[in-house]
Fold these 2 entries.
Entry 1:
Amino acid sequence: MNAIADPATDAAAIARAALEEAARAARAAATFLARAPRPVKDRALAEAAAALRSRQDEILAANARDLAGAPDLTDAFRDRLTLNPARVEAMARGLEEVAGLPDPVGRVLAEWTRPNGLLIRRVAQPIGVVGMIYESRPNVGADAAAICLKAGSPVILRGGRESLHSAAAIHACIADGLRAAGLPEACVQVAPNTDRAFVGAMLAAAGLIDLIIPRGGKGLVTRVQQESRVPVLSHAEGLCHTYVHEAADPAMARSILANAKMRRTGICGSTETLLIDRAAAAALLPQLVADLRALGCDFRADAAARAILPELKPATEADFSTEWLDAILNIAVVDGVESALGHIRRHGSEHTEAIITQDESAARHFLDGLGSAVGMWNASTQFCDGGEFGFGAEIGIATGRLHARGPVGLEQLCTWRYHVIGTGQIRP
Amino acid sequence: MNAIADPATDAAAIARAALEEAARAARAAATFLARAPRPVKDRALAEAAAALRSRQDEILAANARDLAGAPDLTDAFRDRLTLNPARVEAMARGLEEVAGLPDPVGRVLAEWTRPNGLLIRRVAQPIGVVGMIYESRPNVGADAAAICLKAGSPVILRGGRESLHSAAAIHACIADGLRAAGLPEACVQVAPNTDRAFVGAMLAAAGLIDLIIPRGGKGLVTRVQQESRVPVLSHAEGLCHTYVHEAADPAMARSILANAKMRRTGICGSTETLLIDRAAAAALLPQLVADLRALGCDFRADAAARAILPELKPATEADFSTEWLDAILNIAVVDGVESALGHIRRHGSEHTEAIITQDESAARHFLDGLGSAVGMWNASTQFCDGGEFGFGAEIGIATGRLHARGPVGLEQLCTWRYHVIGTGQIRP
C-alpha cells in the first residue's frame, strides 16, 4: 500500500483509461467501417468538407483562441499553427480530393487456383485502428482523418496541445460528415486528454491500436519509434543524397541539384548532401556551387572539394549525418558508385537518394545497391511525395523495412487477408 | 560505482556484445547478399544439401550428444529433437526445393508513368537482417536459413539449448554451401551464445536486426511479441473456427469438420471450435459429433448444444478461448453469420476461420466480416499452410496487421523500394 499520491502515476492512469475507452470505441467502429461501401465513406468526406466551409468562422475563432493562448511562439511555429480562410478552404478541398480517389479496400491484389481446385484470393483490408500523433499544423488532423476514413480504419488524432481548440473545431466538422453518412462518430476521434501521458498510453496500446503514425520533428518521431509497443510507420529524418556521377550531363546536374536542394529546404525529400565523382568535380563543382550560392545556399565541404574551392567551409564527419532542413549543403567527393553507396550507408537515413548520370549501367548499379526506400535516376529528390507519385494523398513517408516504404497513401494504409474458396476440399 | 558483480547483468552485457558482433557481420553480408544473382544463391543451397547428405554421420552423432545431454525430456520433446537418416534427407530435399523456387528479389511489383514522364517502379527487395528464434526442432533452422538466403536476407539462428550440437552440425553444412558459392559465411549464423540473455539481446536490437521471426509454443511467441523492439512476424496461436451455416451441405460439413479438427490436431490451422447455426444443429450436430467421436475426439459444448446432446461436457467461457492443439472440440450454437462473427471476434486469434455453406451471399458476408488473416469457404482450415498456398516453402504464419498475413513465404519475406527513372525532371 502506498499512501502517497503520485501525480505522474495518476496522470498516466487517467490517460490510459481515456485511451482505452477511445480505442474500444474505435475497435467497435472498425468492424462497421471496414465494410462501409465507398459511397458512404465519400459522402462523409463531402459533408465534412461542406461543414468546414459553413463553419469557417467557428474554426477561425477557435484558432484565434489557440494563438492567443500561446503568445511566446516562434514565427515559424506561429505560421504552422495559424489558419485563415484560404487554409480552411484547402482543408475542405483536401477532403474532397480523398473522396475522389478509388476505394482501396476490397481490391483483389492477387488470385490463383491450386491444383486441388482451391481458389486463393489476396484481398486488401483495412489495418484496423490508427493512432496519429502530430504537432502544430491543424490541417494534418483533417488530412489524416480523411485518408484513414477512406482506407476503412478508425483514427485517434493526437495533435499538439497548442492547437487544441482548432483541432476540436475541425473535428466537429468531420463528426458532422460522419453523422450525415450514418457512420459511427468513433471513426474519427480527437484525444480526449491533452496530457503528455496520453501519447505514452497510445504507444503502449498494443492490441488496442494497430498502427501508430507520427508526423513532426525528429524528436517526436524518434521518441515514438523508441517507445512504441504498437507497429509504427514513420521516418525520423530525410537525409537525402544527390550523387553526380562522372557521366552526368552537366546542365541536367545543375538543374536537378538546384531543385533538389533549394526548391523547398524544409521538406524531408530535400537533398542534404551532394556526392560528386572525383573525375567530374574539377570541371563541374564550381558551377554547381555558384548556382546554389546565387540561390542563397551555404556549404560544408570535405577536403577534396575544398582543394577545388578553398573558400568552402570545412565539413565535419557529423555534418554529413546532419539533416539541415535549411539552405546548407554538405559536399563530398567520391570515387565511383561503390564509394557513393558506402557514404550513403554510413550517413543516410534510407529515405531518398538520386544519381545523375547518362550511363545506364552506373544508374542500375546505384539503384540496385541502395537500401533506401526511394532511389531516383536523373530526377530531383524532392519528387519523393505521395502526390508526385500519383497516390492522390499521403499520410506520411516511411523508411522502415516492413509493410510500406516511401510515400504512404491509401493503398499502403491497407493490409490484406486471404479468401480461400473451395468446393469441399479436405487436406490429405 | 557498484563493486558487487551482478551475474545477470554480466550475462546480458556478454550476450549483447555477441549479438552486436553477429549483427554487424550480418549487416555487412546483407549488402552483398541483396545483390547476389539467383544462380549463386541456388548453388549455395544445392551445395549445403549435398553437405547434409555427405556429413550425415556427423549430424547424427551431434544429435545423439544432444539427446544424451537431456535425459529428462518428454516423449514429444524427444521426438521433435531427434534426427535420423530420413529426417536429414528431408532437410536436404527442403534446401533443394527452395533452390528450385523463383527468386523473389528484384521482381517488379508495380510500374507506372507520371504525366511528367517519371517512370515509377516498385521493386521487391530483401528485408535485411532476420533473427530467427525457435525451439527444439533442428530442421527449423535449416528451413529458415534456406528461405532467408533465397530471399536475400542474412539470418541469425537461435534455436533451443537442447539442440545445440545438432544446430552446429547442420550449420556447418550450410557454411560449406555458402563457401562453395562464394557467399559470406555471415549470411547464416548460429547464435554464438546459448544464454537466455541472447534472446533478450536479439529482441532489443532495433536498427541491427530488421525482423524477428519466432517459431514455437505460445509462451515463446508471446514473450517475443511483448518484449521485442524489432518488428515481429508471428502468430502466438491458431484458435481457428469452422462455422457450419444453416445452408451447409451436410455431407460436406461432416467431411470438412472431421479433417479440420482431426487430420492433425497439433498444428496451428486445426479447428478448435465448431460454430453451428441453430437452424441446422438439431439435424446435423449429432452426426458431426458421432463422426468426430469415432475418431477419438472429445467435446466442450455450450448449453444449446447440450440441449441437443446432453452427454456432451459443458464448455466454460475460457474453453472457447483455449487452443487445445489436441483431440478436443469446442461447440457453440449461433444464430446466423453475424452471431458467428461476433463469437470469432470475442474468442479468435485472427488466424483462419471457415464457413461451410451452399449460400454464396452468406459466404461473402462471412468472409467480408472477418478480421482474420485467412477466411475459407467450403474448405478445411488445415489448408492454411505455405505449401498448400503454393508458396513452395514457408517460414511461418503471421496474424499481425502489418506487412504480411497468413503463410509467410519467399515473397512475403521481401520488402520493396521504389526506382524513379527520369530524364532530368525537377519538381515545380
Note: DSSP finds 14 helices and 15 strands in chain B.
Entry 2:
Amino acid sequence: MKKLKIGIIGAGRIGQLHARNAINSNRVELIAISDIYIENLEGTTLAHEVPIITTNSEGIFADPEIDAVFICSSTDTHVDFIKKAANAGKHIFCEKPISMNIQETHSALEVVKKAGVKFQIGFNRRYDKHFRKAYESVRAGKVGTPHIIKITSRDPEAPPESYIKKSGGMFMDMTIHDFDMIRYLSGQEVEEISVKAANLIDDSFLRNDDVDTAIITVTFEDGSLGVIDNSRQAVYGYDQRIEVFGNKGLVTVENEKQTNIQISTKEQVASELPKYFFLERYMDAYVDEVNEFASSILDNTELLCGADDGLKAEALALAAKISANENRTVKLSEINLNSSVKV
Amino acid sequence: MKKLKIGIIGAGRIGQLHARNAINSNRVELIAISDIYIENLEGTTLAHEVPIITTNSEGIFADPEIDAVFICSSTDTHVDFIKKAANAGKHIFCEKPISMNIQETHSALEVVKKAGVKFQIGFNRRYDKHFRKAYESVRAGKVGTPHIIKITSRDPEAPPESYIKKSGGMFMDMTIHDFDMIRYLSGQEVEEISVKAANLIDDSFLRNDDVDTAIITVTFEDGSLGVIDNSRQAVYGYDQRIEVFGNKGLVTVENEKQTNIQISTKEQVASELPKYFFLERYMDAYVDEVNEFASSILDNTELLCGADDGLKAEALALAAKISANENRTVKLSEINLNSSVKV
Amino acid sequence: MKKLKIGIIGAGRIGQLHARNAINSNRVELIAISDIYIENLEGTTLAHEVPIITTNSEGIFADPEIDAVFICSSTDTHVDFIKKAANAGKHIFCEKPISMNIQETHSALEVVKKAGVKFQIGFNRRYDKHFRKAYESVRAGKVGTPHIIKITSRDPEAPPESYIKKSGGMFMDMTIHDFDMIRYLSGQEVEEISVKAANLIDDSFLRNDDVDTAIITVTFEDGSLGVIDNSRQAVYGYDQRIEVFGNKGLVTVENEKQTNIQISTKEQVASELPKYFFLERYMDAYVDEVNEFASSILDNTELLCGADDGLKAEALALAAKISANENRTVKLSEINLNSSVKV
Amino acid sequence: MKKLKIGIIGAGRIGQLHARNAINSNRVELIAISDIYIENLEGTTLAHEVPIITTNSEGIFADPEIDAVFICSSTDTHVDFIKKAANAGKHIFCEKPISMNIQETHSALEVVKKAGVKFQIGFNRRYDKHFRKAYESVRAGKVGTPHIIKITSRDPEAPPESYIKKSGGMFMDMTIHDFDMIRYLSGQEVEEISVKAANLIDDSFLRNDDVDTAIITVTFEDGSLGVIDNSRQAVYGYDQRIEVFGNKGLVTVENEKQTNIQISTKEQVASELPKYFFLERYMDAYVDEVNEFASSILDNTELLCGADDGLKAEALALAAKISANENRTVKLSEINLNSSVKV
C-alpha cells in the first residue's frame, strides 16, 4: 500500500505524538521533523527513528520527497508556515487554532485555497469513536431534527500561568474544540452566541484577562439551540460529554471510565473516574486523525474537517470573547473576515 | 399523634391528588373539599371519603375546625383565596404559581406575613428523594463550592392548546419549578438571567405568543453560573436531571427508569425509559410534601419552601420572559415588586 | 367496587405489613386480626383501625363475614390453620414455607384442593415490577429459549441465632424464594439439583447445623440450566439480581439503588447502595400481592402463584439440603410426597 | 533500552498477532517466524517486516541470537517444541493449552524446570486492565476475604465444526481461561469441582462428544466457592464478566461496550453491545502480555502466569470433563500427574 510521506514542524508534545502515530501507521512515512528547539527530541526513541531531524523547517518545504507537512509549532508561526507549505505544494495538517487573528487565518486559508492543496485542522475529537458514532446516529435520523445540543467540556486541571499567557484565552484554546464539535453535531452554522463567563477557580486567569468557567449558548440557522459548559478544573478528571436532543429522541455520550470495575462496600458503590489526561482520552482519535489525513490524500477522499472548519471555530471563539466582555449576544455576521482591523 | 385538619379548595387533578395523600397520611385529617365544579368528584372514591364536599369555599375559611387550607384552584383565584385564608388565620399550602402578576403575588404574601400564618408553595420537586439527597450532598460540602448548576427539564409531551392559553407561558408554568430548584441547589440568589428561546415543536405555542424550547443561563450572587434547558416534548419521557459541579466534585441525578431490566440482543442493549408522567415520577414527593407541611405546623418546624421561594421563582419567570422577548440579559433588580405598573 | 373481607392470623412483622396494605387497599376490607401474642399490636395505629382484634383465631374461621384468611403465624402452625380455613370454606393466603415437612405440606394442600378454595403462597418477589417485567420479556420471547438462568440472592446481614434455630435452614428459609423465582422465570420444572454449601460468615449457622453461603445448580426438564448463589451477609445491602440467558439474548435485572445520585470526586465516582431491607426493597410488591389475591377471588382470575408453587419450592429446598449434606446431585423424583417417612 | 530477541513458531492468527505486537513493542525484537504452512504470511505486511521467515522451526532453536521462543503452533506440537526450546536454553512463551494430556504437559514442564528457563503461558486475560484492577482490589483487601467468585464467560458464536473436532472440548479450549482467572482472583487452589453441562445450541458439539453450555462450581482450599457459566453462543457479543464477593464487599467487572453512546427514543434507551471478537476485547491485554514477558526476562522480574498456572488450569479442565461425564463431584487430588495412564 502506498504511504504518504510527511514532515513534521514542531517537536513539542503534540508534534511528538503525531510522529509516533505516523511511525506506527501503515499509511504514513515520516521523513523529517524540525524544531528550533530540536533538543526536545534528545533521549526519545524518535531520535533514532526519524531519518531527518533538523532545526531548519525550510528544508522540509523544499524537500521534493515530502508530500505533506504537519504544522505543530507554536500558534504564532502557523500562518507563515501554512503559506510556505501551500506555496510549496504540500498538503497541510495544522494544529488548532490556525492563528489568534481571524483575518490572518482567513488570509492563510486563501493561499491554501489558491494552491489547491488539502488542509486538515487538528480537531481530534471528530475522530473519537464515541462522538463519531453519535454524529452518525444524528445524521441517520435516529433522534430526528436536533433541537438542543449540549456539550460538557471540562479540563481536569488548570494549565500553568505561563501557558495561560500564550493560550489566546479559554475560548480560543479550549472551547474552540467544543465550537467545532457543536457545528459538527448540528450540521448547521451558528448565527448568534451568548456567553456568561466567570473566574471561580483561581486568580491566574483573571491576572491574564482570561476566564476559567463559562456557559455558552448558541442559536443555529434553523433556530435550534446549543449550549456548552466549560471549566478549567474538574477534579474528577477530563469531563467530555455530549447530548443531542431532537424531536424523535436523545443521543448521549458519557465519559470513558479508566476501567469498568465497581466496588460495593458498606459505604457506597464506587466506580472509576473518567480518563484524566486528554492524550489518554483521545489516544485512538489521534491515531485515526493521522490515518484519515493520509487516506484523504492517497485515496483522494473527502476530509472530515477542513480549512473552513478551522476558520469557523475561530470566528466562534472570537465572538464568544466579545460576548463575554460586552455581556451581550453577538451575531456571527459581526465578525469581518476581510477587514484588516481587528474586531 | 395529633393531626392537622385541612380543607382543600379546588378538586381538579392536583386537588384530588393532595386529597388522596391527605387521607392516607397519619398527620393530616381532610375535613372539606370545595370546587365550583364539584361534580368533578362524582364517581371518585373521594366522594365517599371526605366529610364536607361543597361548592362554597367561604365555608372552609369560616370553619373553626380547619387549621389549614390547600389552594389548588385555578391560578387566577390564588391571590384572593390566599388573602381570605390568611385573614381567617388559616395556614396555607398553595400550588404554583401564586399568580401571573408579580406585584399581586407580592401583595398577597404581605397579607400572609402580617397574619403570621405558615405558607408553603407547591414546589414538589424539593421533596423528591433523589434531588433532596443531591441537595444534602451539596450542603454537606461533598462537591465543594458550586461553580455550575445544570438542570435538564423536559416534559414528555406538549400540553393541549387550551392549556397553553391559560398557562402563563412556559417560563411561568414549567420552568418555574426549575427556577426554584436551581435556587435551592445553589443556596444563592440569581442576579441576572439570559434566555434563548425557540419554537421548534409545533405552532400551538407560537400562536399563543409562547415558546416550547429554551436555554436559560443564570448568574448567582457569588458569580457562579447555572443553566436550565427546557423542552415541551421529549418523546422518551419526562426528563428530569440535575448536576451540581463544584470545586471539589460533581453530583448528578439521573432519571428514574420504569424498571431496571436490560435486554441484550443481536441489535443492542435496551433498557427502559424514564417514567413518563409527572404524577408517577413525583408520586412519593407529593406524599412527603403534604406530610412535611403538616409537620411544620404541628411540630412548628422550618418549612422547606415558603412564601419567599414562591415569589422569587415567579420573579425569575418574569425576568426570563423579558430576556427572551428583548434578547438581552435581565438583572433581577429590574423586577419591581411594589410598582402597580407591570414591568 | 366490591371488597374482599379478610382476617389475618398472626400479628408479627409480616402480619402487620399485610394489615397495613389491606387497610390502604381499595379491594380489601380487613375485618379481624388474631395472635396469641396480641399485645404485639399495642402502640401501633393498627390497634385503632382493625374492627376485631383477638387472641382467638377460631373466631376468624367461624366468622361468616370473612371471605379469606391470611396465615402469617409461625410456620409450625400453618398446616393446622390451612386445614381449618379450607374446611371453613375460606380462601387462603399463606406465608412461606407452608411447613417444614413436605408430606405435611402435601396433605394440607390436598385438603385445600378438596375444599375448592383459592390458595396463594406468599412469594412476594413474583409481584416485583422489575422481576415481573423480566418474566414477561422472557415469555414474550425477547431472549428466545432460556439456556441459563442466574439468580444472585444475598441478605444484607445474618439473622440472630434465635431466628436461625427456627428457620428451617437457609434453603427452606431464604433460598425458597429463589427456587420459586427460578421456576417462574424458566417455565420449566427442575429435574435435578446440585449444591455446594459453606460456612464462611460466622459460627452461628454451623452451631445450628445450617449453612450461610451456597451455589445451587439446577437442571430443568428441557436440559437447560439454572444457578443460584446465596449468602446470608452482603455488607453492601440486599442483593437481588436475576439474569435469563437464551438463544436470542439476555435479560438482566439490577438492584434498585436508594437514590440515583452519583458523586464524582478526586477519588472515585460514588453511587448509592441497593436498598438494604427486604420490606423496603419489596414494598410495592407486597401491596400488589395483596391486591392481586383479592382480585383473583373477586374477579375470579388466575392466581400468579398457587398451592403447587408452594409445594414445589419446598421440595426444592428439601432436595437442596440433601444435596448439600450428601455432596451429590439429587433428582427431584427422589422426593416422595406421599410417604409418611421423612426423606 | 535492551530488547528481547524472539522467534515465533506458528504463523496462524495468534502467531501473527504476537508478531505484530512484538514489532510495535520497544522491548522486543522479532528475529524469525516459522510455520510449516509459511504461505499463511503471503500478502501480509509481516512478510516484509520479519528478518527470517522459514518453514524450519529447528533453525529458531539453533539460532544463538534468539533469547526466547513463542510457541503458537497447533496444540499437538507444543510438548515437543517446549522440550526443544528448553533444551536449547530459550525462554518460552506458550499458547494455551500446553497439551491435551496432563501427564505430557507435566513432563514438558519438568524439562522446562530442569533447564531453568522462564515459561509464560498465554492466559491473556490476566493482562486485561479491568480484570487486573479487580485482582488488585481483591488483593488489597477492598472486599475482604472472598466467599463467592463468579465468572460469566460466553463466546459470541460457536466455532466451526472443524475447530470443535480439534479443540479438546469446551473445558480445555474455552473454560481453561476461566479456570485460570478463578484461581488468579481467588489466590487459592481448587479442591473439588462439580459440572452440569448441556447441549443447547446445536448438534455440532454433540456429534463431537462435546458440550456447548455449562455451570461449573468449584470449592477452594479455604471452603470458599466459585462458579463459572459458559455458553458457546451469546448473540449479543463476547460476554466476559467477573464478580468477587467477600465479607467486606463486592467487586464486579462489566463488559466493555463498543462505544458509550445511548439513544433514547419512544421505544427504549438503547446502548451498544459488548465488543464482539476476543481479539478486539483483549487487544491491549495481548500487547501487555508480550511486553511483560519481555520485562520478566530483561529485568528478571516475576512472571504473572507461569508453568504451574498452565498445568493447574489443564488439570481443572480435565476434572471438569470427568465431572460432566460422570455427573459427580471430582476432587482435584484424583488427577494423577505422574501416571502414564490417562485418567
Note: The longest strand of chain A covers residues 146-154.
